[in-house]
Write a sequence for this structure.
């Protein structure tokens, strides 16, 4: 798996006319080497693969990154990187333009002589189509979040705070095998449901409110993402009408996820559904995003998506919502795998409106 990734990376470097690349973004360290630590750099050329780290991680690196020559640094990470570049005669060096902070870029550039760190690149495109092993890890992360949802609906009741719901979700996922929350857990109840990213607060949940929960697990580095909205007590007519509108749009969006579909098109289909129902102005974010080693990856489903064709083994979320200031709102989200002939929703939790009585 790592060997294949290195082959693709080296082909990419050849296209960019780079002698070598310095990789510092943690998820790319993991992806291209298998190593899961920090304070580390990868330096990869057409013939060599170096992992530069310090004493704390050398043993771990030898175990997790067998395809790499482990280089121990004792006087500074960037100092050792410059030494490696000079010793190997690499002249034109690529770097992660979207990840290397300016101070570190300047430090490395100053340490080099006749070499130039002059080719900014973004490696995310190399992670867009998931390998079979990655998909299985994401499936496991998704199952953890599905199982956690089944448990949290037993916990929610009037008088419980949003913070308590978030803590219970995160604790439950940890017990089930999650390494950490995939992102800051969102729990927004009542009027706070109009906040698409309404992270949990001390607000107490009361009878007659929607409760929107957006959360995810991390399993061996891979993320899941799910949103479900429930109602505490009996749903009134407005709850049911808006929920049904969002659910129909969400199901339509899932059906449109297939090979060849453009990210803008899938987003537009759902946006039209909500607009036709009178809620176009109440859906102000993109329809979805990919995920994997990061919670937000390419491709995106949005009006500004650059994805012209979805492909098999890509992943996207489908997460329309309606947000009404002064009243509240809701969102429904699944993680969806693009297959050869359509798609497979990995998220299995029920999307029927649940009343917690």
């Amino acid at each position: 798996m790592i060997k294949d990734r290195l082959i693709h990376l080296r082909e990419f470097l050849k296209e960019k006319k780079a002698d070598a690349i310095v990789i510092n973004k943690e998820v790319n360290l993991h992806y291209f080497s298998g190593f899961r630590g920090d304070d580390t750099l990868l330096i990869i050329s057409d013939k060599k693969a170096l992992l530069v780290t310090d004493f704390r991680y050398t043993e771990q690196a030898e175990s997790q990154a067998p395809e790499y020559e482990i280089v121990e640094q004792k006087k500074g990470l960037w100092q050792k990187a410059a030494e490696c570049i000079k010793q190997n005669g690499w002249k034109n060096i690529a770097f992660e333009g979207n990840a290397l902070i300016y101070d570190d870029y300047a430090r490395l550039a100053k340490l080099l002589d006749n070499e130039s760190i002059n080719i900014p690149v973004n490696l995310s495109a190399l992670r867009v189509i998931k390998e079979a092993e990655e998909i299985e890890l994401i499936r496991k992360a998704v199952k953890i979040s599905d199982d956690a949802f089944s448990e949290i609906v037993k916990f929610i009741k009037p008088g419980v705070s949003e913070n308590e719901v978030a803590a219970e979700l995160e604790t439950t996922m940890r017990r089930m095998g999650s390494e950490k929350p995939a992102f800051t857990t969102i729990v927004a109840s009542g009027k706070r449901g109009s906040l698409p990213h309404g992270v949990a607060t001390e607000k107490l949940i009361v009878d007659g409110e929607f409760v929107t929960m957006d959360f995810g697990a991390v399993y061996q580095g891979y993320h899941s993402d799910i949103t479900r909205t429930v109602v505490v007590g009996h749903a009134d007519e407005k709850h049911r009408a808006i929920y049904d509108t969002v659910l129909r749009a969400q199901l339509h969006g899932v059906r449109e996820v297939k090979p060849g579909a453009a990210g803008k098109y899938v987003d537009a289909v759902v946006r039209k559904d909500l607009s036709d129902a009178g809620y176009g102005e109440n859906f102000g974010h993109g329809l979805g995003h990919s995920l994997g080693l990061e919670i937000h990856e390419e491709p995106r489903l949005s009006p500004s998506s650059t994805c012209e064709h979805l492909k098999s083994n890509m992943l996207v979320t489908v997460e329309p919502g309606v947000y009404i200031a002064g009243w509240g709102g809701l969102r429904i989200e699944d993680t969806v795998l693009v297959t050869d002939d359509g798609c497979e929703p990995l998220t299995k939790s029920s999307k029927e409106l649940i009343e917690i009585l």
User: Anything to note?
Assistant: The chain has a mean pLDDT of 97. The CA atoms of residues 336 and 345 lie 4 Å apart.
